[in-house]
Structure formats: structure tokens, C-alpha cells
Automatic annotation (TrEMBL):
It comes from the Bacteria. This is Cyclase family protein. GO terms for biological process: L-tryptophan catabolic process to kynurenine. It comes from Streptomyces morookaense. GO terms for molecular function: arylformamidase activity. Pfam families: Cyclase. Gene3D superfamilies: Putative cyclase.
Length: 285
């Protein structure tokens, strides 16, 4: 190989690579995991082409229609697994005449700049609130006071910070019936505890601080109060902010010092998109 080939050329690495490790903050997407909103299109993955014809496999025969390779087709909601909400998820175009229409209504997922989806991580631990609402299908609220208390200890939030609410809710992201506690028991049956989530006052404080990206390890950043209210999404998305939902392993991040990045699939006109969330975390010395 000539110089400059993958074997012989210099291997680029980010300047922080030696002192940081990459942590995957994404959930696994599979048909038997609670990766989709319980009232939306279920996630499906089906084999389209297989290496060879196989009649002796379950649940269905496999066919090699076009040659000895494998590929699958997917049926997938835009808000599946670890994903983000673009402004168009709740904000119609300002000329539409629809409720909550505004200037950010034309910003679909493919038009959100990647710079908005990356930045210094500010991890707010709200896990102590889990189960404290006192009634099923009602979220304990994260208020502005919780955030200012966090700031008293870790410093005031700044423009460009990515605020991540760590509730530990991703521990309920399990296969089969056990996974119904993640969202189904909250949204469909109304019998389960609901995840902690910020109220409108907390979102307004983040906006006042210049925060334009916030995330949660719950299925939604919005609180549940018998049903899912729209005011949190409308307040944040209506101001041009975006939300990353369905995160995992936020307990691997310190309150300050990590760098967050979410890279969504680039879907034209989408109201959101699944993707991969990672963080660069300082190595322990």
C-alpha cells in the first residue's frame, strides 16, 4: 500500500482521546424491548434477503432473492429508542393556523444543526424523586429550585451546556413483560409509577440560561399527569430548543466534566430521529 493508506497513514484522534473514555448513552433497539412509544407504531425488523434459502427456520422461512448476503427492512417510528425531538414535533409552521404554531415550526430534524446536539454535559441527578409522587401515572416534578440547588454546588449553567436529567429510569428498559414498567404501565394502563420530569418553570430557567439542548433517561422529557401534557414540549421546542429522550447510563457521567454528543439519522422533514448518544468522560486518575 502507498503511504497514506489506512495501514500506513497517520491515524487521527481527538485531542482529548488520551484522557477520556467514550461512554455509550444509547438504548438497544429490538422488537422485544420497549423502544417505541406504547401507543405508536411498534418497531419491527424483518429479513428481506438472506445468505441462502432456508425453509427450516422460525418464525418464517428465509430467502436469498438477490444473492448471498443479508439485509433487513425496518418499520420504525421517528421517536424510537434513544432519539431527539425537533421543534416540528410540537410546533406547527407559523403560517399553518394550527394551535401552538410558531417561528420554529419549520425546523425539522434534518435542519437542526449538529452543534446544538453536542456540548458540555451538565448532569442533574433527580433519582431521589422517583416514586415520590404518591399516586400512579403522575410524575414527580423537577422544578427550577432543583436546578438552582444543583447550580449552587456545581456552578451556574451556561449557553451551550447540555442538561441531562438522570433519574435511573433506564433500569426499567427490559425485555418482555418486565419492560412494560418503562412506559406501557404509565401511559396505557395508568397503574405504574411515572418518571421524574421537569415542569415548565424548569424549562424556562434552562432557556434563560441559554441552554438549547436537554435530555432525559426516561421515555419522554415531559411529565405525566394522568396523560402527557404538551406544555413542556411547547415551551422548549417553541423557543428553538431540542430534547434527547430515552438515554441510558447517565450514572456513568459526573455532574460536570463530560462532553455529550448525539448524532441523529438525517431524515428529511422528520419531527425527530433516532440516533446514537455518547459522552466523552474523563478517565479516573
Amino acid at each position: 500500500m502507498a503511504d497514506g493508506s489506512p495501514e500506513n497513514g497517520p491515524k487521527a484522534s481527538p485531542p482529548w482521546a488520551g484522557g477520556y473514555e467514550i461512554v455509550d448513552l444509547s438504548v438497544l433497539v429490538a422488537e422485544d424491548l420497549p423502544c417505541y412509544w406504547p401507543t405508536h407504531q411498534p418497531y419491527q425488523a424483518k429479513v428481506w434477503n438472506w445468505y441462502e434459502n432456508r425453509q427450516d427456520v422460525a418464525p418464517a422461512p428465509l430467502y436469498s432473492r438477490e444473492g448471498p448476503y443479508a439485509t433487513r427492512w425496518l418499520a420504525i417510528d421517528e421517536h424510537t429508542g434513544t432519539h431527539f425531538d425537533a421543534p416540528t414535533h410540537f410546533i406547527p409552521h407559523e403560517d399553518s393556523g394550527l394551535p401552538n404554531a410558531g417561528e420554529w415550526g419549520g425546523v425539522s430534524a434534518d435542519r437542526v444543526p449538529l452543534s446544538q446536539l453536542t456540548g458540555p454535559a451538565a448532569v442533574v441527578d433527580v433519582s431521589a424523586l422517583t416514586g415520590s409522587a404518591g399516586e400512579p401515572a403522575v410524575s414527580p416534578l423537577v422544578t427550577a429550585r432543583h436546578i438552582t440547588a444543583w447550580e449552587d454546588e456545581h456552578g451556574e449553567l451556561a449557553p451551550g451546556d447540555v442538561v441531562l436529567f438522570r433519574s435511573g429510569w433506564d433500569s426499567r428498559y427490559r425485555r418482555g413483560r418486565a419492560g412494560q414498567a418503562y412506559a406501557h404501565d404509565v401511559i396505557v394502563t395508568g397503574r405504574g409509577d411515572a418518571w421524574p420530569a421537569p415542569d415548565v418553570g424548569a424549562i424556562r430557567l434552562l432557556l434563560d440560561r441559554g441552554v438549547r439542548c436537554a435530555g432525559s433517561d426516561a421515555p419522554s422529557i415531559a411529565p405525566v399527569q394522568g396523560k402527557l401534557p404538551v406544555d413542556v414540549h411547547v415551551t422548549g421546542l417553541g423557543a428553538g430548543a431540542v430534547f434527547v429522550e430515552g438515554l441510558a447510563r447517565l450514572d456513568s457521567l459526573p455532574p460536570r466534566g463530560a462532553w455529550f454528543c448525539f448524532l441523529p439519522v438525517k431524515l428529511e422533514g422528520a419531527t425527530g430521529a433516532p440516533g446514537r448518544a455518547v459522552a466523552w468522560v474523563p478517565r479516573a486518575r
